[in-house]
Amino acid sequence: MKSRFKNDIMLVSIILVVALILFLFFKFSLKTGDMVVISINGETAFKLPLNTDTEKTVKSELGENVILIKGGIAQIISADCRDKICVHHEAISKSGETIVCLPHKLVVVINGEEET
Amino acid sequence: MKKAICLCLTFLLSLTFTGCREKYEKFTDYSFDYFDTATSIIGFEKDESVFKANCEKIKAKLGEYHKLYTIYSRYDGVNNLYSINTAHTPLEVDGKITEMLQFSKEMYDLTGGKVNVAMGSVLSIWHNYRTQGIDNPLEARLPDMDILREAAKHTDIKGLEIKGNTVSLTDPESRLDVGAIAKGYATEQIALWMEKEGITGYLLNVGGNIRTVGNRPDGKKWQIGLENPNGEESKKYSEYLELTDSAIVTSGSYQRFYTVQGKEYHHIIDPETLMPAKGYKMVSVINPSSAVADALSTALFCMDLNDGKKFVESLENTEVLWITEDGKKHYSKNFKDYIK
Ligand SMILES: [Zn+2]
Q: Which residues of A touch B26 (CB under 8 A)?
């Protein structure tokens, strides 16, 4: 009887530990899972992880924008739009921050846990 | 005991896995079909289909206001601002137009003429030079002051007559341009409609005209990051603000401009000098109404800082952040209450 009680305690402890690990895992994966979401005319075109350096050329019938993700920040480094406001825009990294290219109807937004 | 453990297990696992269920989620919709700018709608819903259905309703309204308020194109079967500008006779229009124009006249009086929707003749010249300058940067030019002065003879707001639902411009050379008011006015009307319909927990951003509708269901406040026009890498956002059932509208010299011989000329034209207003990089106005905030941000952009500060102190529920050309920030009395 005594050993069964001990076993039960053990089981409860294991369950608690597993639950804790799962909980932390979810929290952790959400925190580091910031994505760079690129949409054209309201439709999501690409989702890229913010923590992976990459250069993406996005083409549509309206034109072309080159998005650079490097060191946890994203920016538009070149575009053939007429005003170039998107290229002059500062790099973004925090959830909710956006860069808009109005002539190309393109939005780059950081999607993560804490939003604006 | 076994039963107790089983229950405990179920309980813990359900905590871990369903923690995210039944919760409100944040959704965003981007569109580019209204007021020649980008619109974003942010909403908290449990169900994406509800959000999408609400967005469709909101966008249908935006489309309706856009068609009525545009000065750039004609739509079949609609008497809009374009029609008024080209009619040369009294025209019967939708109540949404007369109410907006009536509001524009109130804003003209309130701001001492710094917001004048009858300035279309002058603004259309700048619009044409700017558009050509952007399309063809090597040949970008400034409009001749003589042409601007001639056009400015036809900007008397009294020439805009509103009788019932009939609108007329008594001066045939006069033109309306509601660029400083229409977006904010339409956004406000839609926000009021949403409140009535119970569509809350939303944020509308129509080209920088930001209006929050109701609180976020997660209890957090709406956070709005104002862009820093100084371009300091270290501090990209000039300010993070927290708003509840309020609007913030920013007028910035960096939003729309063109370059002539290395110098930038933006789109906010001072009614007195007929040139792009000098002094500020941006002016942000907080007011419960996005219509008022929109009009005030343009008016304050055309006032010097001291006059602007005095003017703002005479108004209720209005707080302002000015960023002058030297990059310095100036605040109205209680603006800092909104800073996070
Ligand atoms: Zn662009």
A: 115
